[in-house]
Structure formats: structure tokens, C-alpha cells
Design a protein that fits this description.
The structure is a homodimer. Chain A is α+β, with helices and mostly antiparallel strands. Chain A has 5 helices and 12 strands. In chain A, a hairpin with a 4-residue loop joins strand 4 and strand 5. The longest helix of chain A has 9 residues, at 62-70. The termini of chain A are far apart. In chain A, 52% of the residues are buried. Chains A and B meet through strand 4, strand 5, helix 3, strand 11 and strand 12 of A and strand 4, strand 5, helix 3, strand 11 and strand 12 of B.
């Protein structure tokens, strides 16, 4: 387990800028001394600060049980070059496989939650479940981001965006417009 | 008002593939004989079929009142070439301005809801509010997509993805990987 991961704290007020563009993310959990990771695309910001994230973790996923039991996870944001690992994580279940070992992802201890950061991801958001009212209806968890990490110098990351059935968009050029929107 | 908009019905089972990559969307509403449009980036899929979408429409937005009153809206998905119009819609309030006229967006009657489609957008999702339990806490509405329209031939649309503070990513190249994920 590497502890040499290059990371700095990102102010929580900027965390929304990582999730708002809709990247495919990896979600880690840890339960009974065992870490797991899944791929996710069904998430949205709910509030700027403290940053609240709503996300669907299907009860068919092995991660669902750990997330419900511990109330903790890490949302790790990968760049497109990790696409084969991301798809790999989506293709197998943590019930049978140690996906960190299988796909060469490096778990790194988080500061505030039991779930690990992923060293290969440019951003990692430590999260706690703060609202479970919609879990029964939609497997929808409300998470609060309690600490955000970013790789120094990660300014225009090439995130991956899922279009279904193995099809993904890679983030292209960045444009700037005079917006009053936060 | 143009009725020559080129559109075909998209099977509802494929609607998630439009929203899952996290594009900036436009949301139209109509109330008291007046249509309005806002920009939105805080949305997620909640279910494949019937397609359920969760989205945050702030109660500071003029659209909030119309959405709550009518329970209907259209999620229109623009390509990046509409960026100036999108940002324009985000910069002014429908309280004071007819944004369709101001930004040259063409409202087209929908089939099932009172809110209009937007002719310039490559996809339009007619939606009804089906769950309001999270409106008070997070301004979070659960919508069911009741009809999906797509422009014939729209295969790799250059969507826009909001990174905050006037910064946007334009959808880049598409890649395909052997995924078992839906």
C-alpha cells in the first residue's frame, strides 16, 4: 500500500466542480476489514457547502451492504487513461474478487473514513452518509463530502463519461464563458 | 413557433444514455400561459425504465414555482455550439425576461406535457414529477420521463459539461470498451 500518493486538500467549497461535469467515478467502501470498489455514474450534487452528493448504489452491488452498514465511502475520480480498470471494476463483483489487486488500484488510508482513497485517481472525496430516506425507494444515498483531496496540478483532467453499453465520452477541450452561475 | 423540428421517438429504455454522461441541460416549464427555460447540471438517473431522473431545481429559480405547480417540465439537451445561449439562460431570470425570445430558442409543443420542447436541442425529454418527498430538504424533484425525442442522426453529440465559474468541458472523442454494465 503506497503512502507516497501526491495529494493536497481541496477546499470543500470547490468540490462540486469535480462532480458537476458528470464523470464516471469509483466508489470505495470498507467493511469487516475488507475494501471494495465499484464504478458509478448515477450521482448529482445536492448542495455546494457543505458539499452534499446524491448517488444511486444498487442493492444488487456488493458495495451496497458495506455502504449501508458503515455509512462511509470514498468517491475517487479517475481519468480516461484508467478506462480499462474502471470497466473491469464494473464487470466483476467484489463478492468474489479483490478488485484492487485484480486491476492494479492502490488503496491509501483516508483521513476521516474507513474506506480507502485510490492513489491512481486525481481526486478523492471522503464521504459520510447523512440521509437514508430515499434508500428504500431508489437506492439513493445522500452523502456529505467531509474531506476533498486533489492531485497537485490537476487542472483539466480527461474524465470519462458513461453513455451506456460500453460507450464512453472522453472530456475534450475546456471553454470559458462569462457566466454568473456558480 | 416552428413545427418543422426534426425529431423521432427514442425508446424510453435508452433515455438514460442521454443523461448519464452528465451534460448541461435546459429545463423548460410553462405556467399561466408563459413558458420559461433554465440551465441545469444537478441531475442524475435514478432508474432505467421507466426512466426516473432526480434533479435539483433551486427555489431561488423562477422555474421552481412553475415546476412545483404544474408537475411538468421538459429536459432539453443542447450541444456545445449553443453554449452562449445556455450561459445566457443561466445569467438572467425568467421573472423579467422571455428567455426564448432573448436567446433565440424556439419552443415547440410537446406531446404529453404543457412545457415546450426546444427545437435547437438534439434531444428533448418530456417529464412529470412523480416524487416530491425531497423537495423541501434539497429542492430535489424525482421526474419520470414519459416521452423521449431525439434528432435523427444524433450519434455523438458534443455535449457541454459544467465545471463551475464559467468553465465548461466539451465532450471529446467516444471510446468503446467491452463492458457488462448497462
Amino acid at each position: 500500500m503506497s503512502t507516497a500518493m501526491r495529494k493536497r486538500t481541496l477546499p470543500l467549497s470547490r468540490a462540486y466542480r469535480l462532480l458537476e461535469p458528470g464523470p464516471v467515478v469509483l466508489v470505495t467502501t470498507a467493511s469487516n476489514g475488507r475494501a471494495n470498489v465499484m464504478a458509478m455514474s448515477w450521482q448529482t450534487m445536492l448542495e455546494f457547502e457543505p458539499p452534499l452528493v446524491g448517488c444511486v448504489v444498487s442493492n444488487r452491488n456488493f458495495s451496497f451492504t458495506a455502504l449501508r452498514a458503515t455509512g462511509e465511502c470514498v468517491i475517487a475520480i479517475p481519468e480516461a487513461r484508467l478506462a480499462p480498470k474502471i470497466v473491469g471494476c464494473g464487470n466483476v463483483s467484489g463478492r468474489r474478487v479483490d478488485k484492487f489487486a485484480r486491476f492494479g488500484l492502490t488503496p491509501v488510508p483516508a483521513a476521516h473514513v474507513g474506506a480507502p482513497l485510490i492513489a491512481e485517481c486525481f481526486a478523492n472525496l471522503e464521504c459520510r452518509v447523512v440521509d437514508r430516506r430515499m434508500v428504500e425507494s431508489y437506492n439513493f444515498f445522500v452523502l456529505e463530502v467531509v474531506h476533498a483531496w486533489i492531485r497537485p496540478g490537476a487542472t483539466a483532467p480527461r474524465t470519462l463519461h458513461h453513455r451506456g453499453r460500453g460507450s464512453f465520452i472522453v472530456a475534450g477541450r475546456t471553454i470559458h464563458l462569462p457566466s454568473r452561475m456558480k
